[in-house]
Amino acid sequence: MSVRIEPPRTARQARPASHRPVAAPVPTSEDFAPAPSPDGRRVAFLSDRAGSPGVWVCEVDAGAPVALPMGDEPVLALSWSPDGQWLACVVAPGGAPRTELWVLRPDGTRRHQVAGFGRRSAALAGWLPHGAVLAVTETDEHGQALLVDAATGHRRVLAQGDLLTLLDVTPDAGVALLRRGPRNARWLELLDVATGERRRLFPDTGRGSTDQGWFGPDGTSVLARTDAYSELAALVRVDLTRPEQPPTRLAGRSDAELEHVTPSADGQRGALLWNTYGGRSELSLLDFASGVQRAVAAPGEVLGDVVFAADGGLLCLTAQGPVQPREVWLVDPSTGAPRPLRPDTGAPRADDAGVAPQLLDLRARDGLPLSGWLYRPAGPGPWPTAISLHGGPEAQERPGYNPLFQALVAQGVAVFAPNVRGSSGFGRSFVAADNLAGRYGAIADVAACADFLVDAGVARPGQLGVLGRSYGGYLVLAVLVNFPGLFAAGVAECGISDFRTFFAGTEPWIAAAAVSKYGDPQRDADLLRDLSPLTHIDRLDVPVLLIHGANDTNVPAGESAQVAQALADRGVPHGHLVLAGEGHDFLARANAEAARTATTGWLTRHLAATATVVG
């Protein structure tokens, strides 16, 4: 079933590019990851308004939010127990990828850790329907699915295994739903907790991945988001009483990928988040029994963090846009009407400066269709131009809030943010197109973007830069060594420089999951050596800024350090910024701003940009 949905309407529109000077917005605080109380009267959420992501609680439609005491470490995720007595918080000590699970009362008392001890990293799947028992995955060399009592910390291990994630448990805890497998090749398994017997939910189609699933309300079915049966991910239902039958398609679209599904606590309906071409969000509510799907007006260009209150009377989400920081919005499921949690959301503010990006289509050198978002400075082009490469690679450049792009545009630098092959949001084949030796194509896609921008009159030859973080940081280094002379400068943030040292130094579960995407360190050693920028570092002869979090255990900080040393040995101009107290993602606002300031300064200086407006 599909439904046509009106294009999203943003709460605040960015200004289209014009010949008038544009001031860069001052980065503001963001509110995200809402967790409504079971009765829908209060909403807990994360905010970096105090400098680092912490927990805040607000009465719906009344009063100012109140901060809860969670210590100095950043909080990444949040959930309210069905009995209303506990908040569960995923905490990242030192900003590192290895996380802990803590619980506390909604008034801030009785805070204690319940999972993620030692070298294990904890992820929260959710709560059992009644009481306060958490479904948790702990990971180190292997995965461990367990149930944890929030009050006592008592732990019950359900299963152990490689690349294992717990998704759901039946109310009696008799059957668990597990996700298994590496990136882009995941499947679901049913576990009989009493016997330990496992069976695959549906047969292997030989393609695609299934990454989300939950039990239906009666426990005799499983609903799953998968692209194993279609190019674009869709919602299917598996009848557990008739396992021989193929899954039934409940919702799918030919013009949009199903990004995420949030079921209500009673399992009767779901909130479906759709990713339309280019990355704009659309939202609908689906009645699982009748199949009726109803569109909900989108309060922003990009939506996320969708969650129902336990009683089903409130739906929370976050919305953002080019000049709209992430903000919490509330939706009445009966009417579909959105309203902001914070009363001043949607009102003009001093930081509402910026330009709206334009979605452009182009072709890769081998003919593959590509696209990207172009942010134009004021005045006529061509301009000094920076190509920005997102992380992942199974992620997507979308028209969300990005103060770095607006800061560069205000300095007279155009920004083109493409989705090269390997990006999500464009279907199963596109996201897998850079696997293994396909990575050469992804690197060439960046060069194709540079050619396109020059030919289109956007970029000035000799004044092209490239920047990116995480996988995008890898691509920066890879394109600089594979296409010398094409770019005048680069900024690589938290990027892999040598696959051999990456696989040896990253977290074991990250390494195991990455084999399907990058290659096996032993079997594909020659391929990985050639794809490693450090192998060809003698070809890199333009100024490069390297930025890394000191506590990064996803892409260890040594990946940037060894590039800095190699460039220093050859006398190549470079900068090396290491941010203390940060991991793979820069969570403290001060550190994120330091990285933005350094990036903007580096590119404007080395691309010889003329500032349009300063301040």
Automatic annotation (TrEMBL):
<dbReference type="InterPro" id="IPR011042">
    <property type="entry name" value="6-blade_b-propeller_TolB-like"/>
</dbReference>
<feature type="domain" description="Peptidase S9 prolyl oligopeptidase catalytic">
    <location>
        <begin position="405"/>
        <end position="608"/>
    </location>
</feature>
<feature type="region of interest" description="Disordered">
    <location>
        <begin position="244"/>
        <end position="264"/>
    </location>
</feature>
<dbReference type="Pfam" id="PF00326">
    <property type="entry name" value="Peptidase_S9"/>
</dbReference>
<keyword id="KW-0645">Protease</keyword>
<dbReference type="GO" id="GO:0004177">
    <property type="term" value="F:aminopeptidase activity"/>
</dbReference>
<dbReference type="Pfam" id="PF07676">
    <property type="entry name" value="PD40"/>
</dbReference>
<protein>
    <submittedName>
        <fullName>Dipeptidyl aminopeptidase/acylaminoacyl peptidase</fullName>
    </submittedName>
</protein>
<feature type="region of interest" description="Disordered">
    <location>
        <begin position="1"/>
        <end position="40"/>
    </location>
</feature>
<keyword id="KW-0720">Serine protease</keyword>
<keyword id="KW-0378">Hydrolase</keyword>
<dbReference type="InterPro" id="IPR002470">
    <property type="entry name" value="Peptidase_S9A"/>
</dbReference>
<dbReference type="InterPro" id="IPR029058">
    <property type="entry name" value="AB_hydrolase_fold"/>
</dbReference>
<dbReference type="InterPro" id="IPR011659">
    <property type="entry name" value="WD40"/>
</dbReference>
<dbReference type="InterPro" id="IPR001375">
    <property type="entry name" value="Peptidase_S9_cat"/>
</dbReference>
<keyword id="KW-0031">Aminopeptidase</keyword>
